[in-house]
Amino acid sequence: MNSDPVRVACLGAGYFSQFHREAWQRIDGVELVGVADQDLEAARNTGVTAYPDLQQMLEAGQPDLLDIITPPPTHLPAIKLALDNGVGTIICQKPFCNSLEEARLAVELAKKAGVHLVVHENFRFQPWYRKMADVIASGELGDIHQLTFRMRTGDGQGPDAYLARQPYFQKMKRFLVHETAVHWIDVFRYLLGPVAAVYADLRKMNPAIEGEDAGYIIFEMTNDRRALFDGNRHLDHASENTRVTFGEALVEGTAATLELKGNGAILFRKFGETEQLEILEPRQWPGFAGDCVHALQAHVVSALRSGSKIENEADQYLRVIEIEEAIYRSAATGQKQEI
Questions:
Q1: CA dihedral defined by 180, 185, 191, 196, rounded to 10 degrees?
Q2: What is the pLDDT of residue 4?
Q3: How confident is the model at residue 93 (pLDDT cuts 50, 70, 90)?
């Protein structure tokens, strides 16, 4: 891409779309040219040029990049329409597409068209995970044995759970893993390497919802490291805002341990010692969860301008969906599943 402004159009004006729009407006060299939503009033309320459907926005706005911020059943049709209208780059929210088969088809179509298709998997862009990745790469932790994440959002209790923010959560037949834990599938791969096998114990605790909302997932990595996702949306953790980190983590090695706190701080402790050194201070980040939406979108724009590799291109992200499917198979069979 040249130095002209990147013309960005957004599909969707629901709850989470606010973080996308606000982030685009803070990125130099980006022009937000439209928002489309079947609820035209919601699109108008964004303050951006509003359209009642995607086709009208693509024809009138002529975007270079389409940002899809709608639920999974809409993804494949929107991707097809964008490809038919010559959009050069597509970013699509997770969960990506309605099924693994749809996701594979979307990747195939984008590849044939020579179009960048990127999954908006933003948690790996949170500052604490970028810091962890740097420390892991430095070797300061020694041989890493395991990573544990305890997800404790505290928003899953009672008949009104999720209704105020994202009511469709209640109707998702696959919830904890498909909607939420998928973030840590990607984070674990980012920090520890490829996944070789998984074992899962999932359960539904709130009768008001259709999908699972608690469970344990053990990840066996190809380098013999292990990771544990321990998620329970009914319980909380020690943080004024449980949606900053969504929980707490430990990365444990033979030489040192990293601890992620609920406020976004990272503590470093050498093996055999009790003193902890704060290597990432908590701060009031703009945007969502460490400003990870802005970080991902800025990364894509920068990579397009420089020609560098984009993280989470959809063809690579298919592995995350394959791991998700293995997790549900494991929970159904009670057996470890090879990837």
A1: 170
A2: 86
A3: very high
What six digits make up the tokens of 63?
A: 């975007």
Q: Read off the DSSP letter of residue 137.
A: H
Provide the whole-model pTM: 0.94
285 to 67, 243, 289, 291, 334: CA distances (angstroms):
23, 12, 7, 6, 41
Domains, the chain, ranges and CATH? 6-120 (3.40.50.720), 124-288+320-338 (3.30.360.10)
Please state the separation of Cα 137 from the chain's center in Å. Answer: 22
Strands (E), the chain: 6-11, 30-36, 50-51, 65-68, 89-93, 116-120, 144-151, 195-203, 214-221, 226-232, 247-253, 256-260, 266-270, 277-280, 337-338
pLDDT tens-place string over residues 151-167: 999 999 999 999 998 89
Q: What's the rounded mean pLDDT across residues 137-143?
A: 98
Residue 285 CA to residue 140 CA, distance in Å, equals: 27
The pLDDT value given to residue 2: 60
Q: How many angstroms separate the CA atoms of 49 and 215, rounded?
A: 43
Say if CB 7 and CB 62 are below 8 A apart. Answer: yes
Residue 51 corresponds to which amino acid?
Answer: Y
pLDDT for the residue numbered 123: 98
CB atoms within 10 A of CB 59: 10
Could you identify the residue written with the tokens 């932790």? 141
Q: Which of 22, 72, 34 is nearest to 321 (CA)?
A: 72
